Protein backbone atom coordinates (compact mmCIF):
# COMPACT_ATOMS: atom_id res chain seq x y z
CA UNK A 1 0.00 0.00 0.00
CA UNK A 2 1.00 3.59 -0.59
CA UNK A 3 0.35 5.55 2.59
CA UNK A 4 0.56 9.29 3.29
CA UNK A 5 1.02 10.82 6.76
CA UNK A 6 0.63 14.44 7.83
CA UNK A 7 1.24 16.12 11.18
CA UNK A 8 0.90 19.95 11.15
CA UNK A 9 3.09 20.27 14.27
CA UNK A 10 6.01 18.14 13.13
CA UNK A 11 8.60 20.69 14.25
CA UNK A 12 7.16 20.79 17.79
CA UNK A 13 8.83 17.62 19.17
CA UNK A 14 5.79 16.71 21.25
CA UNK A 15 3.91 13.53 22.06
CA UNK A 16 1.71 13.88 18.98
CA UNK A 17 4.78 14.02 16.76
CA UNK A 18 6.25 10.93 18.37
CA UNK A 19 2.88 9.23 17.89
CA UNK A 20 2.57 10.06 14.19
CA UNK A 21 6.17 9.24 13.32
CA UNK A 22 5.85 5.96 15.20
CA UNK A 23 2.97 5.19 12.85
CA UNK A 24 5.27 6.04 9.93
CA UNK A 25 7.92 3.70 11.31
CA UNK A 26 5.44 0.85 11.89
CA UNK A 27 3.93 1.05 8.42
CA UNK A 28 7.21 1.59 6.55
CA UNK A 29 8.23 -2.03 7.23
CA UNK A 30 5.78 -3.41 4.66
CA UNK A 31 4.34 -0.33 2.93
CA UNK A 32 5.48 2.69 0.97
CA UNK A 33 5.16 5.61 3.41
CA UNK A 34 5.32 9.30 2.57
CA UNK A 35 5.43 12.07 5.18
CA UNK A 36 4.33 15.50 3.95
CA UNK A 37 6.70 18.15 5.27
CA UNK A 38 8.89 20.84 3.71
CA UNK A 39 11.88 20.70 6.07
CA UNK A 40 13.48 17.25 6.07
CA UNK A 41 15.86 18.40 8.81
CA UNK A 42 12.91 18.59 11.23
CA UNK A 43 12.35 14.87 10.81
CA UNK A 44 16.03 14.20 11.41
CA UNK A 45 15.87 16.10 14.70
CA UNK A 46 12.71 14.23 15.69
CA UNK A 47 14.28 10.90 14.76
CA UNK A 48 17.25 11.57 17.04
CA UNK A 49 15.14 13.00 19.86
CA UNK A 50 12.77 10.03 20.05
CA UNK A 51 15.03 7.27 18.69
CA UNK A 52 12.59 6.43 15.89
CA UNK A 53 13.87 4.79 12.71
CA UNK A 54 12.50 6.77 9.75
CA UNK A 55 15.06 5.56 7.22
CA UNK A 56 12.46 3.85 5.03
CA UNK A 57 10.05 6.77 4.66
CA UNK A 58 9.89 9.33 1.87
CA UNK A 59 9.59 13.04 2.66
CA UNK A 60 7.43 14.96 0.20
CA UNK A 61 6.61 18.69 -0.06
CA UNK A 62 3.73 19.64 2.21
CA UNK A 63 0.49 19.62 0.22
CA UNK A 64 -1.53 20.90 3.20
CA UNK A 65 -0.23 24.47 3.23
CA UNK A 66 -2.48 27.33 2.18
CA UNK A 67 -0.23 27.93 -0.82
CA UNK A 68 -1.33 24.63 -2.37
CA UNK A 69 -4.56 24.81 -4.36
CA UNK A 70 -7.34 22.41 -3.43
CA UNK A 71 -7.31 20.76 -6.86
CA UNK A 72 -3.57 20.09 -6.59
CA UNK A 73 -4.06 18.56 -3.12
CA UNK A 74 -6.86 16.37 -4.43
CA UNK A 75 -4.81 15.16 -7.38
CA UNK A 76 -1.83 14.34 -5.16
CA UNK A 77 -3.92 12.57 -2.53
CA UNK A 78 -5.47 10.33 -5.20
CA UNK A 79 -2.10 8.59 -5.50
CA UNK A 80 -2.48 7.10 -2.02
CA UNK A 81 -4.31 4.02 -0.80
CA UNK A 82 -4.63 5.54 2.65
CA UNK A 83 -3.78 8.75 4.49
CA UNK A 84 -3.47 9.31 8.23
CA UNK A 85 -3.80 12.90 9.45
CA UNK A 86 -3.21 14.45 12.86
CA UNK A 87 -6.02 16.99 13.12
CA UNK A 88 -6.52 20.11 15.20
CA UNK A 89 -10.24 19.68 14.58
CA UNK A 90 -10.28 20.63 10.92
CA UNK A 91 -10.83 17.96 8.28
CA UNK A 92 -9.21 18.24 4.84
CA UNK A 93 -10.95 17.25 1.63
CA UNK A 94 -8.88 14.50 0.03
CA UNK A 95 -9.24 11.99 -2.79
CA UNK A 96 -7.41 9.13 -1.11
CA UNK A 97 -9.08 5.70 -1.03
CA UNK A 98 -9.05 5.61 2.77
CA UNK A 99 -8.79 8.46 5.26
CA UNK A 100 -8.05 8.19 8.98
CA UNK A 101 -8.12 11.17 11.32
CA UNK A 102 -6.17 11.14 14.57
CA UNK A 103 -7.12 13.57 17.35
CA UNK A 104 -4.87 14.00 20.38
CA UNK A 105 -6.97 16.21 22.64
CA UNK A 106 -10.56 17.03 23.64
CA UNK A 107 -12.06 19.56 21.25
CA UNK A 108 -14.79 21.78 22.59
CA UNK A 109 -14.96 24.76 20.24
CA UNK A 110 -14.93 23.03 16.86
CA UNK A 111 -18.17 23.45 14.92
CA UNK A 112 -19.29 20.27 13.17
CA UNK A 113 -22.90 20.99 12.29
CA UNK A 114 -22.51 22.46 8.81
CA UNK A 115 -23.42 20.39 5.77
CA UNK A 116 -19.86 20.70 4.43
CA UNK A 117 -18.36 19.36 7.67
CA UNK A 118 -20.85 16.51 7.79
CA UNK A 119 -19.89 15.66 4.21
CA UNK A 120 -16.21 15.64 5.19
CA UNK A 121 -16.95 13.40 8.17
CA UNK A 122 -18.85 10.96 5.95
CA UNK A 123 -15.70 10.40 3.89
CA UNK A 124 -13.57 9.37 6.89
CA UNK A 125 -13.02 5.67 7.42
CA UNK A 126 -12.23 6.10 11.09
CA UNK A 127 -11.28 8.56 13.79
CA UNK A 128 -8.72 7.31 16.27
CA UNK A 129 -7.72 8.81 19.63
CA UNK A 130 -4.97 8.45 22.21
CA UNK A 131 -7.14 7.78 25.28
CA UNK A 132 -10.63 7.17 26.63
CA UNK A 133 -10.49 10.74 27.93
CA UNK A 134 -10.06 12.17 24.43
CA UNK A 135 -12.53 9.72 22.92
CA UNK A 136 -15.32 10.81 25.28
CA UNK A 137 -15.26 14.28 23.72
CA UNK A 138 -14.48 13.37 20.11
CA UNK A 139 -17.31 10.87 19.74
CA UNK A 140 -19.88 13.49 20.77
CA UNK A 141 -18.37 16.22 18.64
CA UNK A 142 -18.04 14.18 15.43
CA UNK A 143 -20.99 11.80 15.87
CA UNK A 144 -18.67 8.84 15.64
CA UNK A 145 -17.31 5.82 17.49
CA UNK A 146 -13.60 6.44 17.38
CA UNK A 147 -10.94 3.83 17.99
CA UNK A 148 -8.54 4.14 20.92
CA UNK A 149 -4.92 3.48 20.06
CA UNK A 150 -2.83 4.28 23.09
CA UNK A 151 0.51 5.99 22.32
CA UNK A 152 3.59 3.87 21.59
CA UNK A 153 5.55 3.18 24.77
CA UNK A 154 8.97 1.54 24.71
CA UNK A 155 10.20 0.68 28.19
CA UNK A 156 13.86 0.57 29.16
CA UNK A 157 14.17 -0.62 32.75
CA UNK A 158 17.79 -0.64 33.93
CA UNK A 159 19.54 -2.10 36.92
CA UNK A 160 20.33 1.29 38.42
CA UNK A 161 20.16 2.02 42.13
CA UNK A 162 17.22 4.22 43.04
CA UNK A 163 17.92 7.61 44.56
CA UNK A 164 15.82 10.10 46.52
CA UNK A 165 14.69 11.80 43.33
CA UNK A 166 11.31 13.23 42.40
CA UNK A 167 11.22 13.47 38.61
CA UNK A 168 9.10 15.34 36.10
CA UNK A 169 9.48 15.02 32.32
CA UNK A 170 7.72 17.32 29.86
CA UNK A 171 7.88 20.19 27.42
CA UNK A 172 8.38 23.64 28.90
CA UNK A 173 5.64 25.08 26.70
CA UNK A 174 3.13 23.93 24.14
CA UNK A 175 2.54 26.46 21.41
CA UNK A 176 -0.92 25.19 20.45
CA UNK A 177 -2.34 25.31 23.98
CA UNK A 178 -3.74 28.61 25.19
CA UNK A 179 -2.13 28.76 28.64
CA UNK A 180 1.44 29.53 29.66
CA UNK A 181 2.34 26.95 32.31
CA UNK A 182 0.56 24.02 30.65
CA UNK A 183 2.62 21.35 32.40
CA UNK A 184 2.45 23.31 35.69
CA UNK A 185 6.20 23.09 36.13
CA UNK A 186 6.20 26.40 37.97
CA UNK A 187 3.51 25.10 40.32
CA UNK A 188 5.49 21.94 41.06
CA UNK A 189 8.71 23.86 41.75
CA UNK A 190 6.88 26.15 44.17
CA UNK A 191 5.28 23.14 45.88
CA UNK A 192 8.61 21.35 46.26
CA UNK A 193 10.26 24.54 47.58
CA UNK A 194 7.54 24.85 50.21
CA UNK A 195 8.10 21.25 51.28
CA UNK A 196 11.82 21.89 51.69
CA UNK A 197 11.12 25.01 53.76
CA UNK A 198 8.89 22.88 56.00
CA UNK A 199 11.62 20.31 56.62
CA UNK A 200 11.50 17.90 53.67
CA UNK A 201 15.13 16.74 53.56
CA UNK A 202 17.47 14.53 51.54
CA UNK A 203 15.37 14.63 48.36
CA UNK A 204 15.87 16.50 45.13
CA UNK A 205 13.50 17.50 42.35
CA UNK A 206 14.65 16.98 38.75
CA UNK A 207 12.82 18.49 35.79
CA UNK A 208 13.77 17.02 32.41
CA UNK A 209 12.29 19.46 29.93
CA UNK A 210 12.38 20.15 26.22
CA UNK A 211 12.67 23.86 25.47
CA UNK A 212 12.28 25.58 22.11
CA UNK A 213 14.75 28.36 21.26
CA UNK A 214 11.91 30.88 21.21
CA UNK A 215 11.11 30.10 24.85
CA UNK A 216 14.62 30.28 26.33
CA UNK A 217 14.07 33.63 28.05
CA UNK A 218 10.89 32.46 29.79
CA UNK A 219 12.61 29.21 30.77
CA UNK A 220 15.46 31.12 32.39
CA UNK A 221 12.85 32.96 34.48
CA UNK A 222 11.43 29.62 35.60
CA UNK A 223 14.90 28.42 36.64
CA UNK A 224 15.31 31.44 38.89
CA UNK A 225 12.37 30.27 41.02
CA UNK A 226 14.37 27.15 41.93
CA UNK A 227 17.55 28.90 43.02
CA UNK A 228 18.70 27.91 46.50
CA UNK A 229 16.72 24.66 46.48
CA UNK A 230 17.71 21.08 45.52
CA UNK A 231 16.17 21.43 42.06
CA UNK A 232 18.00 20.41 38.88
CA UNK A 233 17.07 20.91 35.23
CA UNK A 234 17.95 18.59 32.34
CA UNK A 235 17.24 20.28 29.01
CA UNK A 236 16.54 18.68 25.62
CA UNK A 237 17.94 15.29 26.52
CA UNK A 238 17.65 12.26 24.27
CA UNK A 239 15.61 9.18 25.17
CA UNK A 240 18.60 7.20 26.46
CA UNK A 241 19.52 9.99 28.86
CA UNK A 242 15.93 10.29 30.04
CA UNK A 243 15.80 6.60 30.81
CA UNK A 244 18.73 6.92 33.19
CA UNK A 245 16.69 9.51 35.08
CA UNK A 246 13.54 7.41 35.05
CA UNK A 247 15.45 4.49 36.51
CA UNK A 248 17.11 6.56 39.23
CA UNK A 249 13.91 8.30 40.35
CA UNK A 250 11.74 6.92 43.14
CA UNK A 251 8.79 9.26 42.57
CA UNK A 252 7.28 10.85 39.47
CA UNK A 253 5.20 14.07 39.57
CA UNK A 254 2.72 15.34 36.99
CA UNK A 255 0.31 18.27 37.40
CA UNK A 256 -1.14 19.30 34.01
CA UNK A 257 -4.62 20.71 34.47
CA UNK A 258 -4.21 21.85 38.06
CA UNK A 259 -6.12 25.06 38.79
CA UNK A 260 -7.79 25.12 35.38
CA UNK A 261 -11.48 25.07 34.48
CA UNK A 262 -11.44 21.57 33.04
CA UNK A 263 -15.21 21.46 32.55
CA UNK A 264 -14.96 24.20 29.94
CA UNK A 265 -11.36 23.55 28.90
CA UNK A 266 -10.64 19.81 29.17
CA UNK A 267 -7.78 20.30 26.71
CA UNK A 268 -5.74 21.85 29.54
CA UNK A 269 -5.52 18.45 31.26
CA UNK A 270 -3.01 15.81 30.16
CA UNK A 271 -4.62 13.98 27.26
CA UNK A 272 -2.83 10.70 28.02
CA UNK A 273 0.56 10.83 29.76
CA UNK A 274 3.39 9.04 27.97
CA UNK A 275 6.03 10.20 30.44
CA UNK A 276 3.96 8.87 33.34
CA UNK A 277 3.88 5.40 31.79
CA UNK A 278 7.61 5.54 31.01
CA UNK A 279 8.35 6.51 34.61
CA UNK A 280 6.18 3.66 35.88
CA UNK A 281 7.99 1.24 33.58
CA UNK A 282 11.23 2.17 35.33
CA UNK A 283 9.69 1.70 38.76
CA UNK A 284 9.16 5.36 39.66
CA UNK A 285 5.92 5.67 41.61
CA UNK A 286 3.56 8.21 39.99
CA UNK A 287 1.99 10.85 42.22
CA UNK A 288 -0.13 12.59 39.61
CA UNK A 289 -3.17 14.82 39.35
CA UNK A 290 -6.55 13.13 39.35
CA UNK A 291 -7.55 14.52 35.95
CA UNK A 292 -7.50 13.79 32.23
CA UNK A 293 -5.58 10.79 30.99
CA UNK A 294 -3.56 10.51 34.21
CA UNK A 295 -6.39 8.87 36.14
CA UNK A 296 -6.83 6.51 33.18
CA UNK A 297 -3.26 5.25 33.67
CA UNK A 298 -2.85 5.34 37.45
CA UNK A 299 -5.08 3.37 39.81
CA UNK A 300 -4.94 5.08 43.18
CA UNK A 301 -3.02 3.14 45.82
CA UNK A 302 -2.70 0.18 43.47
CA UNK A 303 0.10 1.34 41.17
CA UNK A 304 0.49 4.98 42.16
CA UNK A 305 -1.17 7.86 43.96
CA UNK A 306 -3.65 10.47 42.71
CA UNK A 307 -4.17 13.95 44.13
CA UNK A 308 -6.63 16.82 43.75
CA UNK A 309 -5.00 19.59 45.80
CA UNK A 310 -1.41 20.68 46.36
CA UNK A 311 -1.84 19.77 50.01
CA UNK A 312 -2.61 16.21 48.91
CA UNK A 313 0.40 16.21 46.60
CA UNK A 314 2.65 17.20 49.49
CA UNK A 315 1.04 14.77 51.94
CA UNK A 316 1.28 11.79 49.61
CA UNK A 317 4.86 12.59 48.65
CA UNK A 318 5.85 12.71 52.31
CA UNK A 319 3.97 9.47 52.92
CA UNK A 320 5.96 7.64 50.26
CA UNK A 321 9.26 9.17 51.38
CA UNK A 322 8.65 7.84 54.90
CA UNK A 323 7.13 4.43 54.04
CA UNK A 324 9.64 2.39 52.06
CA UNK A 325 7.43 -0.72 52.15
CA UNK A 326 4.57 1.12 50.43
CA UNK A 327 6.98 2.72 47.97
CA UNK A 328 8.39 -0.67 46.94
CA UNK A 329 4.92 -2.23 46.61
CA UNK A 330 3.62 0.58 44.40
CA UNK A 331 6.85 0.59 42.38
CA UNK A 332 6.46 -3.10 41.55
CA UNK A 333 2.79 -2.62 40.61
CA UNK A 334 3.63 0.42 38.48
CA UNK A 335 6.04 -1.68 36.41
CA UNK A 336 3.31 -4.26 35.78
CA UNK A 337 0.78 -1.59 34.79
CA UNK A 338 3.21 0.06 32.36
CA UNK A 339 3.70 -3.23 30.50
CA UNK A 340 0.07 -3.04 29.37
CA UNK A 341 0.96 -0.04 27.17
CA UNK A 342 4.25 -1.37 25.74
CA UNK A 343 5.49 -4.03 23.36
CA UNK A 344 4.31 -4.48 19.77
CA UNK A 345 0.76 -3.47 20.69
CA UNK A 346 0.91 -0.09 18.94
CA UNK A 347 2.00 -1.34 15.51
CA UNK A 348 -0.50 -4.20 15.66
CA UNK A 349 -3.38 -1.83 16.45
CA UNK A 350 -2.40 0.61 13.69
CA UNK A 351 -2.37 -2.21 11.15
CA UNK A 352 -5.80 -3.33 12.37
CA UNK A 353 -7.05 0.24 12.00
CA UNK A 354 -5.95 0.35 8.35
CA UNK A 355 -8.14 -2.65 7.61
CA UNK A 356 -11.31 -0.84 8.71
Gist of the model:
By secondary structure, the chain is of the alpha/beta class. The protein contains 13 helices and 13 strands.
Count of alpha and pi helical runs = 13
Unreliable spans are none
Summed over residues and divided by their number, the pLDDT gives a mean of: 93
Number of strands: 13
CATH top level label of the largest domain:
Alpha Beta
Query: Quick one: biggest sheet?
Result: 7 strands, parallel
* CATH topology annotation of the largest domain: Rossmann fold
Global structural class: alpha/beta
Distance between the termini: 14 Å
Helix-strand sequence: EHEHEHEEHEHEEHEHEHEHEHEHHH
- The portion of residues assigned to helices is 25-40%
Domains, number: 2
Strand content: 15-25%
Backbone CA Rg: 21 Å
Comma- or semicolon-separated keywords:
356 residues, Rossmann fold, alpha/beta, 6-stranded parallel beta sheet, 2 domains, 7-stranded parallel beta sheet, single chain, elongated, 13 helices, 13 strands, 38% helix
Amino acid sequence: MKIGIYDPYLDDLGGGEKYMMSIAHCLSTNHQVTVFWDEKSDLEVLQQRFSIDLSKITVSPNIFTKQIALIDRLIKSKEFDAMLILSDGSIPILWTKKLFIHIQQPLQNVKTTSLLTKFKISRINNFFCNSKFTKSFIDKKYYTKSKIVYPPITLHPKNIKKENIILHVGRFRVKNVGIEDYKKQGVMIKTFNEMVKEGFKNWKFILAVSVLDENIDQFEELKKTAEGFPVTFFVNKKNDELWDLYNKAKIYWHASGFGEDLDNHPEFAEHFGISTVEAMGAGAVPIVINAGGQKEIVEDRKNGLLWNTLEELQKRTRELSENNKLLLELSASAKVRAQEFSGDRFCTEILQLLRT
